[in-house]
Write a structure and sequence with these properties.
The complex is a heterodimer of chains A (537) and B (170). With 537 residues, chain A is of the alpha+beta class. Helix content of chain A is 31%, strand content 20%. In chain A, β2 (68-70) and β3 (76-78) form a beta hairpin. In chain A, α15 (464-475) packs antiparallel against α16. Chain B has 170 residues and is mostly helical. Helices cover 69% and strands 0% of the residues of chain B. Chain B is built from six helices and no strands. Chain B has helices at residues 2-29, 45-54, 61-73, 88-123, 128-142, 145-159. Classes of the chains: A alpha+beta (537), B mainly alpha (170). Chains A and B meet through α1, β10, α7 and α13 of A and α2 and α4 of B.
């Protein structure tokens, strides 16, 4: 026995040696270095501004700047453009570019870059999702659907080196908000033409924003450095940014890294950890709440009985306890939604809020033919497994059963299956589903027209008075008259309750105390610009 | 022996073909498209049509099945849906060395520990050493890897800081 003792000892020594072997072959994470900002994100699907409108946008906006940004107060912060003017008929928009803007290789950003970029957004061969926002431009949909094949016929023209002229197919006042979107930046024509699909490789890519891409190790790390040629107002204070890529749940991974002091900034918090963090003496003060321009609601198939009866929808709306939902689902971090359209969208009117008592609800339900809920068909509330929708559905199920005596069941789908299911509801029947909409841009048209008139969420709401007002507002060039029309359609919408608003969600950030200045300028999508941040150590 | 090895390698082909067919059918049977993940607006039907055309998803299924198989046999595994600027070949080329390295380390530990401890247990059958090793082996096989590894990460990475808990690899 004693003779063989050296064997287990050798084995026990081998254990730390093999661990050492493993660790030396893995790079160490960046220790907290003065001047380096560390954060974490999921792998972006692309850094090409023309292609994607998903979460990759949050990284793209650090590299590329659009012509301007629309602030929450409605004013424009001019960036790539010096000025914008519209013709009297609202069809021609002229953009004067800021000649100081250069790409990170020193080449000037010209109108030709914007013409190339917006045409590429619409190019059917490229298949970018951004083209969807440019449908108001003359010949945009024709080019995108291959009815015409000559891109020069699309209403975007570089008149001279720094002047871009855009011709619309019809008056579209929301185009002002659309141009400020993060998706409509220019791409460098000279680089894209040379490298094609590979132009976003770190060795080729150039950008016009505060940062440039230094390296991109897929699924591992992205490194950004200050762009020496940047000419805009947001000169970065932090010169070096290291973004670790995570392939697991980004909220869980970020919290773990933040608590281990591996990152300086976390962009979300797992819902089940919110209470613990709020109570934590160290993390609590570091938690920042940023309301989002969006609404979570429960919607019904307005084309089928009993959901086509407004009294039924109103009765169900009256008994919903929104505060209870906000407290249970979001630990009070979300905001109760009294109306469907969020408060930052012009034309919104909280006074339109639909409310009533439980008794009134019971009366309405009885008038609709279901006294005390008798005879009301048992229905299904569909929910996605994501975003706590299952819990929301269960709370609603309970409220409707307790207060009105109607019974329902909750059905849950995995997120991708849920999205496919929603799409199929264009023609397939359903009863109720938890859904949401986030503002794409700060204009009521994004809500009244896209969600309810054009039925993007398959709610099948139909009220001729509402549709007429929305159509009228579309073509109205006088800004005040336009908002007045949307106010009228808002009043009708709230009374009809095609969907019941529940809450406006909020983003939750964690920011180390030595990071200051990072904020939101526009509530839409809660985009942040790292160039505005300072690190005080 | 050589003939046996060759026969075993050739036997891989029908297995791979079955795997390919099953994966192909399941991927096409799953609801949803690869395109509208993480977006607010439903994807414009025209944009979806353009993307489908670009990635040949609008072709009849048998044609897709055969053309992808043909390309794969020639080393072209097609573009990545997840990363619009990369091909699957790029991704494999990036990940394979890392997987190989981790796999090799794991293999080295497993072989050395397994052989040594197993040998010791066999030589001292019935002793406390045998019982300990057998117990450890049984526990190791029974515990789900993800649970055991999570505990190790918390212990060695977060608490003791012997290894970096997160390395940007998730």
């Amino acid at each position: 026995m004693k003779r063989m003792l050296w064997v287990p000892v050798a084995v026990l020594l081998f254990l730390p040696l093999s661990l050492l072997l493993l660790t030396t072959s893995i790079q160490n994470t960046a220790a907290q270095n003065a001047g380096t900002f560390r954060m974490m994100a999921g792998e972006p699907s692309s850094l090409d501004p023309n292609l994607v409108t998903d979460y990759s946008t949050y990284l793209i906006v650090q590299l590329f700047e659009p012509m301007y940004i629309l602030r929450t107060n409605g004013s424009l912060q001019m960036l790539g453009a010096k000025s914008v003017s519209t013709s009297a008929d609202g069809l021609t928009w002229t953009f004067q570019l800021n000649p100081a803007y250069k790409w990170s290789d020193g080449q000037p950003v010209t109108a030709a870059d914007y013409e190339f970029s917006w045409t590429r957004d619409l190019d059917p061969k490229v298949g970018g999702a951004v083209g969807d926002f440019l449908t108001d431009i003359k010949n945009a949909t024709e080019y995108n659907s291959k009815k015409i094949t000559d891109p020069s016929q699309v209403g975007v023209t570089a008149v001279d080196k720094y002047t871009l002229k855009v011709t619309l197919a019809h008056p579209a006042p929301q185009f002002r908000a659309v141009v400020g979107l993060p998706y409509l930046q220019a791409v460098p024509k000279h680089v894209v033409q040379q490298w094609g699909d590979k132009w976003t490789d770190p060795s080729h890519i150039v950008s016009n924003g505060p940062y440039k891409l230094t390296s991109w190790e897929h699924d591992k790390q992205i490194v950004l450095d200050a762009n020496p040629y940047y000419a805009g107002p947001m000169k970065p204070n932090i010169k070096h940014v290291v973004i670790s890529i995570t392939s697991t749940d980004p909220c869980v991974a970020q919290l773990r890294a933040y608590e281990a002091n591996e990152i300086d900034f976390a962009t979300c918090v797992p819902p089940q950890e919110i209470s613990r963090i709020m109570k934590d003496p160290k993390l609590g003060p570091e938690l920042k709440r940023l309301p989002l321009s969006g609404t979570v609601w429960v919607q019904f198939d307005n084309s089928r009985a009993p959901w086509n009866d407004v009294r039924v929808r109103q009765a169900l709306a009256m008994v919903v306890d929104r505060k209870a939902i906000v407290d249970a689902i979001t630990q009070g971090t979300a905001t109760v939604a009294p109306v469907l359209v969020p408060t930052d969208i012009p034309g919104n009117n909280p006074a339109d809020a639909f409310q009533g008592s439980v008794d009134q609800a019971k009366q309405l339900l009885a008038a609709a033919g279901f006294p005390d809920g008798k005879g009301f068909p048992k229905f299904t509330i569909m929910a996605s497994a994501a975003r706590s929708q299952k819990q929301i559905a269960e709370l609603l199920q309970q409220m409707w059963s307790d207060k009105l005596g109607i019974s329902s069941q909750v059905s849950v789908l995995e997120e991708n299956a849920y999205r496919a299911w929603i799409k199929a509801r264009k023609t397939e029947p359903y009863e109720a589903v938890i859904e949401q909409w986030f503002s794409d841009y700060a204009d009521p048209q994004d809500w009244h027209d896209l969600v309810w008139a054009k039925d993007y969420r398959n709610i099948h709401y139909s009220n001729p008075a509402f549709t007429k007002l929305v159509d009228q507002a579309e073509g109205e060039l006088n800004a005040q008259k336009r908002i007045a029309l949307f106010r009228q359609s808002n009043a009708i919408l709230e009374k009809d309750q095609p969907c019941i608003p529940l809450y406006y969600p909020a983003d939750l950030w964690l920011l180390k105390p030595y990071v200051t200045g990072l904020h939101i300028d526009q509530g839409i999508l809660n985009l942040y610009y790292l160039a505005t941040a300072h690190m005080t150590q | 022996m050589g003939r046996y090895i060759v026969r075993r390698i050739l036997a891989m082909a029908p297995t791979l073909l079955v795997v390919y067919t099953v994966v192909f059918l399941v991927a096409h049977a799953t609801p949803g498209s690869p395109w509208d993940i993480g977006t607010n607006r439903p994807l414009d039907p025209q944009v979806k049509a353009n993307l489908d055309a670009k990635y040949h998803l609008n072709e009849p299924l048998p044609k897709q099945y055969l053309s992808y198989l043909w390309n794969a046999l020639h080393g072209d595994f097609g573009p990545s849906y997840r990363e619009r600027s990369l091909t699957v070949d790029d991704l494999v080329r990036e990940f394979f060395p890392v997987s190989l390295q981790i796999g090799a380390c794991a293999m080295a530990i497993a072989v050395v520990f397994g052989l040594v401890l197993g040998g010791l247990a066999a030589l001292h059958r019935g002793s406390w050493l045998d019982s300990t090793v057998t117990l450890a082996a049984t526990v190791g096989i029974s515990l789900p890897t993800y649970a055991f590894v999570s505990i190790l990460i918390v212990l060695l990475g977060v608490r003791l800081r012997w290894v970096p808990p997160l390395d940007g690899m998730g």
